[in-house]
Specification:
Helix 9 runs antiparallel to helix 10 and helix 10 runs antiparallel to helix 11. Strands 1, 2, 3, 4, 5, 6, 7, 8 and 9 form a 9-stranded mixed sheet that branches. By secondary structure, this protein is an alpha/beta fold. Helices cover 47% and strands 20% of the residues. It has 13 helices and 9 strands. The C terminus is likely disordered.
Length: 300
């Protein structure tokens, strides 16, 4: 039975972290190495995490010397891991009991060549465990274009071949979209993807930023992602490039409007108008958004 490493990164969450940890301990797959990377700098949270871990002598604990953020904390866990496979778990997400078992089985039985990652379906829930949304994409094989059109699966849904993640250098230190970026790196390196079509994880919509997706951090991440994707457009025909460009420009435009960046939003809107095949849809976008301030920017 091949060893699987699960890296749990934690920052400023108490009860949620405990739930995440227990969900890994309760896995039906036996050969699991658990690594907790503590990114807290406040002593209250550090003490809590350490008190929880005192109950479990089979958990490797790593305390960052300074706050590194999610991407670099995952890389810390990656470097310390000893498993053939590696999975990542944020401290506000949980695994269902058969998550690792079913994904390892998929790795062993899949007919997809050069398989580097297996993901599963997931669901979003609120604090009362009410299901808000389910995410059930089914992509197999080459996934570069699909991932450029929109993230196939978030980090918690993955089980990766550790050597594949190491080959591409792990997670990039970007403000957001770390999952999309790493998936692009894996696809560019020639790795393929497979899916276990079952909901095996869930994540909690706990804070406003995560629910809305609206923040300066998310906008900066989308802009960096667009720059990265534009460097690999030579792999696609013009129609696919237009579709990818429209999708990401729309997300950027939405964030700019929500953040009150009307001047920048107008420039993005012009890109949307150029790239969308049905320009009537772009006019509908304009009608749906409050544009009094936006129109003033246009006149400057």
């Amino acid at each position: 039975m091949d060893k699987v490493t699960v890296v749990i990164t934690t920052y400023k969450r108490k009860e949620e972290f405990r739930k995440a940890l227990i969900s890994v301990i309760n896995q039906t797959y036996d050969n699991i190495e658990i690594i907790v990377v503590d990114d807290n700098i406040e002593n209250t949270y550090i003490v809590y995490v350490q008190q929880i871990l005192e109950k479990y002598d089979n958990v490797k604990y790593i305390k960052n010397k300074k706050n590194l953020g999610g991407a670099l904390s995952r890389n810390v866990g990656l470097k310390a891991s000893t498993g053939k496979y590696i999975a990542f778990l944020d401290d506000d997400d949980v695994y269902f009991d058969k998550k690792i078992e079913n994904q390892v089985k998929c790795f062993e039985e899949s007919d997809v060549c050069n398989l580097g990652i297996v993901y599963c379906h997931t669901e979003a829930v609120d604090v009362y465990e009410n299901i808000l949304e389910k995410y059930e994409k089914n992509v197999r094989g080459d996934f570069l274009l699909e991932n450029m059109l929109g993230t196939i699966a978030a980090t918690t849904q993955w089980l990766c071949l550790k050597s594949a993640v190491e080959q591409v250098g792990g997670f990039k230190d970007v403000p957001s979209k770390q999952d999309t970026t790493l998936l692009l790196d894996l696809a560019m390196a020639g790795y393929r993807i497979d899916v276990v079509p079952q909901i095996l994880t869930k994540y909690y919509e706990l804070d406003i930023e995560r629910i809305s997706g609206v923040s300066e951090k998310n906008l900066k991440g989308e802009l960096l992602l667009r720059d990265y994707m534009r460097r690999i457009y030579n792999r696609f025909d013009y129609k696919n490039i237009r579709t990818v460009e429209y999708n990401i420009d729309f997300r950027i435009y939405y964030l700019q409007i929500r953040l009150g960046k009307y001047k920048e939003a107008f420039q993005t809107l012009k890109l949307l108008y150029k790239t969308h095949i049905n320009r009537l849809n772009v006019l509908i976008i304009i009608i749906k958004h409050p544009f009094r301030r936006f129109r003033k920017e246009r006149l400057k």
